Amino acid sequence: MTDRDTFLKEFRGETLGTVSAQSSADELFQNQTIRPVLKLQNDLFIAAFANYVNKNKADFYSYSVEKKLQTIENSIQKDIKFRNSLKGMVMALFTVEEYNTYIQNSSSLNKRMMNLLIERLKSQVQLFEAEMN
Questions:
Q1: pLDDT tens for each residue of 76-100
Q2: Which residues contact 72 (CB under 8 A, 6 or more apart)?
Q3: Which of 22, 23, 37, 96 shows the greatest Cβ crowding within 10 Å of its Cβ?
Q4: Percentage of the chain exceeding pLDDT 70
Q5: 8 Å CB contact between 118 and 72
Q6: How many Cβ atoms are within 10 Å of 12's Cβ, its own excluded?
Q7: What pLDDT was estimated at residue 132?
Q8: Rg of the chain over CA atoms, in angstroms?
Q9: Cβ atoms of residues 128 and 60 within 8 Å
Q10: Would you call 59 helix, strand, or coil by DSSP?
Q11: Are 125 and 69 in contact (CB under 8 A)?
Q12: Three-state DSSP class for 9?
């Protein structure tokens, strides 16, 4: 294993979520790679989303909580440029081996990655009131 790969795995920390003998390959990748990266990059995702709404959704901070949640979901699902930027923030912390696994089933893994990220941002929606106003 290269120095970079060793560093990344140690830096990201442990597997998050349940891994069992019945876990699918995608589920293993999600819990061993994607979840730790999302946790590590959390502050960056919050900053990126805050920047996104400041540039694209000027009235976001006046929305109801329900509309904010919907905006988070729609922004990530429908704005391909923004979604690709977020994917890059995750993929940058893959090892070469993880990247090779990822490209074998990137469509399914991208869906998992973006769904987890949407839920992560939604669960922290209160930060888009306190920090930004």
A1: 999 999 999 999 999 999 999 999 9
A2: 49, 118, 121, 122, 125
A3: 37
A4: 93
A5: yes
A6: 21
A7: 47
A8: 16
A9: yes
A10: coil
A11: yes
A12: helix
